[in-house]
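P.,

For your records, the input lines for the assembly:
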Amino acid sequence: MGTIRNKRLMVKVCELYFLQNKSQKEISALLGISRPQICRIITTAKDEGIVQISISNPYVRETELEHLLIQKFGLRDALVVDSTSIDGESSLQSFAKEAAKLAGDYIPQDSSVGVMSGYTAKAMIDALEPSSKKLKLIVPLIGGISTTNMSIHADTLALNMAMLYGADAWNLNAPAVVSEVSLAKSLKKEEAIARVLECGRKTDIALVGIGNLNEEATNVRLGSLKKEDLAQLQSQGAVASVCGSYFDREGREVGGEITARTIGLTLGELRRSKIIAAAIGDEKTEAICAALRSKKVDIFVTDMETAKKVVLEDKI
Amino acid sequence: MGTIRNKRLMVKVCELYFLQNKSQKEISALLGISRPQICRIITTAKDEGIVQISISNPYVRETELEHLLIQKFGLRDALVVDSTSIDGESSLQSFAKEAAKLAGDYIPQDSSVGVMSGYTAKAMIDALEPSSKKLKLIVPLIGGISTTNMSIHADTLALNMAMLYGADAWNLNAPAVVSEVSLAKSLKKEEAIARVLECGRKTDIALVGIGNLNEEATNVRLGSLKKEDLAQLQSQGAVASVCGSYFDREGREVGGEITARTIGLTLGELRRSKIIAAAIGDEKTEAICAALRSKKVDIFVTDMETAKKVVLEDKI
DNA sequence: TTTCCTTTTGAAATTAATTTCATATTGCGC
DNA sequence: GCGCAATATGAAATTAATTTCAAAAGGAAA
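Structure tokens returned:
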């Protein structure tokens, strides 16, 4: 590496390349050194730290937590929002506002989106900015979780989101969980329901929340999951619910019989979609870890507080 | 520029690109943004100063002077050497040592090189490191400037250099300046001389010094330029001699009759070659400026002291 | 609204950068 | 010196980045 060992030359090449924005070809012609050699000089200079690239990042703290989350769970990406600046809004709303802004960039033009029910999903969808982007179709990923509280139903969220983006919305006319496996089977075979589920499987993006599995959980409180169901899930170690999937602390999918009684899609069935999961709150730390350990979430969206808790959480 | 205006996204893209060395394609796939858009985001981030590239340059002072020289004279490149560290050697030797090291990189493998006579050229050639590089042919660019002091003759320098690089050396068997134009013409038609001159015109690199034009000038002291010649040149405003060319303060070529009596090549005749000119010394400032203003020098090699003087020199 | 002008966009074309690979070279042991 | 392994090199192939361009979309004025 005769030529490359000359530091003075490395500096000169790098100045021409990085500071004066000359192409490697130009530099090659100027100095009479072959193009590959210029390339190697630049690579060496980078390796040796002669070239320093820094990015002025006002979001270092968020970014750092994102890196940690990505590393810990092998995520495709993470979005951590600074929701400390709460101005009169609830923390969920202020989180959703920021989160929606960021997550919005991850939903490409003309894509189809599947949505889950829940307060987190609702907050984010409400906070989505009515951008110029057009989407194709918004599909609910799970049936109705109650006969009341329509505003957080997947159907409703799909409709709301569709209106924002000039998209069509489909409707899953079924309860989330029924009492018999056989009934669930029959329902899923119904043309109107099968079509929506099939379409859900094919969405480009799935927007979901991560839920706890305890008495306070929304689907328990609203009666979608009965006490016995909850007990059954808990006996299997389930601590998190995401869409139609339940996960134990290790991130293993559990709850076979209940899943079979669910009219909706599991994360496994959504493997063709980019799954964006959002959740915040100290009480959700365990559920979040469980869900992320399943490796089925592509992008996780949260706030700094929750991110810190999740990053520090041990497996057992 | 919807996507591009999002600073958070810009930061994320730049981190992936510059710090994690992911390709734009990968980032595009990861974030679901088109490749050209990623490219634009990076460009914008650079423009807005979000990405900062700095080069740790131990030679800042030299580099800065090089930039000034390049800008002032429109040079292709400049090499400024820090020759303050003189350890027993003459300043010319210590300059030549460093200068040779740098200039060596500008002489590509297998090229042919033309050399001028003079102390500066000699010092540099003596200081050239016997590298692994092979050169084709070394050619003197001008005839003998005296019957003594052979060691600084172009012929000798060509021979010395040829030995260093395993190249052939040619010999220009003629005096530098003769007393009659007709004689010069006849000589230049001689097969043995014409061939060498023709070959000089075709060299890839020309290594030359920049000389003063006064009583102290080497070619005057050694008698190659007679007192009358010097007077004639000075009456034309000539202040610099480079190879067979003479320049006035404005960088205009002068000395037609004397040039016609010279057996050697002018810088104009060397326009196919990359001309590397070296010179140091306070007393040469004026000559250097004149030579560089001619726009015929591609690369100028000097030391920091001289560079400072030259940079500050006004035209009149 | 409708029109026109400006801006934005991604596909494709172009250009640039990097890697591969066969060749050449050096330094080292014999 | 001679051969061998390790390294270095540039031409060509590959891959990556950027620009061009035509189409689409937004926004301002009528």
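Two observations worth noting. The first strand of chain B starts at residue 51 and ends at 55. The radius of gyration of chain B is 24 Å.

Regards
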